[in-house]
Amino acid sequence: MTGAKAIVTSLEQEGVTTVFGYPGAAICPVYDCLRESPICHILVRQEQNAGHAAAAYGRISGRPGVCIATSGPGALNLLTALATAYMDSVPLVAITGQVPSDQLGRDVFQEADITGAAEPFTKHSFLVKNAADIPRIMKEAFYLASTGRQGPVLIDLPVDIQTQELDFLYPESVSIRGYNPSAKANPLQLRRVVEAIAAARRPVICAGGGVFGAGARAQMRAFAERCRIPVVTTMMGLGLMPSSHPLYFGMLGSFGSSAANYAIRHSDLLILIGTRAGDRAMRQPGVLEKRTRIIHIDIDPAEIRKNMEANIPLVADARLALEDLGENCQAADTGMWLAELKEKLGAGAPFSDCPAFVNPHRLVAALTERLDSDAIYIADVGLNQIWSARSARIKEGRFLTSGGMGTMGYALPAAMGARLATTARQVVAVMGDGGFQMSMQELATLCQHDIPVRMVVLRNDSLGLVRQIQKQEYAGRYEAVDLSGGPDFAALAQVYGIRAMTLSDNDEIDEAVDALLAGEKSFLLQCLVSPDEPAL
Amino acid sequence: MKHTISVLVENHAGVLSRITGLFSRRGFNIDSLAVGVTEDKTVSRMTIVVEGDSYTVEQLEKQLNKVVDVIKVRTIPQQDLISRELMLIKCNATGRTRSEILDIAKIMNANIVDLTKNTMTLEICDLPDRLDLLEELLKSYNIQEVMRTGTIALQRGGAAINVK
After folding, report:
1. Buried b (16+ CB within 10 A) or exposed e, A12-38
2. N or C: which end of chain A has fewer CB within 10 A?
3. Is there a contact between B21 and A115 if contact means CB atoms under 8 Å apart?
4. Where are the domains of chain B?
5. B24 in reach of chain A (CB within 8 A)
6. Mean of all residue pLDDT scores within chain A
7. Which pLDDT score is estimated for B159?
8. A178 vs B17: CB contact, 8 Å cut-off?
9. CATH pick for B82-152 out of 3.90.1150.10, 3.30.70.1150, 3.30.565.10, 3.40.50.300
10. ipTM of predicted complex
């Protein structure tokens, strides 16, 4: 068969059913083979969105999402999505067309060194030089993307390789001598963790996105419940515990809850699981290091002691480690500690409403209260992300966002991908008008492929978070944050044939949310929000 | 403090740029980097000398280990270090100074590898400090060119760093 056919057959062997992409001359042979494959191809309107959609597909399905683009600009448009997936450790396989091998390096039409450009943002990349290598490379790419600390893998495929003949045999197993991710925890270290937990009076678990990556949500919850240890999460860890869980004390960090930040500041044992202790979550790791003992559980040894000192490092797959800990740890006497934290949780500040505008906290709370238990909530980046993270009440569903890279325009394409990774779960994308306008061309994709996504655009006609920074740190000298000029987004959606409405009154939130969630089709809810509505 | 790190990598195209890209991206300052093929032709060995504290070296080792093409990373303990560097150095040498330079070469165990009417080229293979010393000694003879290979190193004793 040809190299192109080998690519498509390998995708089928990996169980891929949906790919996201945008064709071009240098990837045409692959598209010619996709035509005859049962794999469903979703034609996005810009390659970056194929990357985000595939990444969200990967986050929800637990298997690498797949995106395809052509050489040069097509591949380059994927870069931001690759970097976004890399920062959030999301399994993703990107396939790009490339100019013919014999013309590589001559700056021919639509040539870009994409493996070079993507090097800092990919877990690994391949430039295929021989069609016979395709089965091995595809097998390795899926293996690398989905094991250890997950991440994006890029395969760059010169167009002549796609038409080269090979004997196809898909390998059964993978052997990469430089890649042996450790999964099982060192028993000695594990025992030290158990002892430290037994000795702690004020322990707290700080869980991050790595727990989702390891598919260890249930194990983490079971461990916390058995040992009666309070849990806080990073933004990437939102949803690991239901918001209403008695052991859950919210998200930590600069935009987090005071209870969560109190918990880690006053703990005597901090158990980090699947988190790199990033700067947005822990602003002063040095101060914490002095106050508390730290256990750091992570699959990536390089994360341990990178941002924060660890008294007991434990390199392991979070699921295996948590299973072990769940079996071996005893319930701790944390009654007093939990009561102290409960007090800090308080009732939360009352809503302060602006007349003629929607209070985004009210809206997010009402929306998430009404969502199905397993719904997927996707927040974009900016004020909407902070409002969402603070006010969303997650039950058994997911909260997806671009946590590490903070990529605006993520939510809408991610919602498409997330929805296609499930059969019937509700998917809601909550965006600002800035982020929405970075990817609103995908409304056409929703229509073309009939993907039902509930969209909320929190519209303040400004780049709210930047505006707030200019207000607070630059004495109100606003520059380039006025976003007026956009159309009525509800009317815009209706032109696409998408149902839509505008909300500007807090008293009508419930009806608007009902309309948003009703029916089987996409819906866009435009909410008018005051430009002065603060982050916190 | 200087640390000497041996890295075994896959011997194929693009690996060197992955490693050097990592250094600049993560802000590691490298004193020297030397690469060559090993007893196994599919494997290259890099010797990296880096200046830094233990945090820097630990991070560097861990980040190197994450590169899929990297097979093994070892920091060679200072006391077990066998290290050498090769230098070629060309300086002015006329009838009057030639014998002085010859004396220096003799004492320093350097060889004369090229000679013209006005210049002399020396070769020395020794510890990096000794190369510095030779360069210092030749300064007054108007050095034209210096080329150093970077340090290569093995660990003293029977222990070997290889793929097995």
Report:
1. ebbebbbbbbbbbebbbbbbbbbeebe
2. C
3. no
4. 2-76, 82-152
5. no
6. 95
7. 84
8. no
9. 3.30.70.1150
10. 0.89
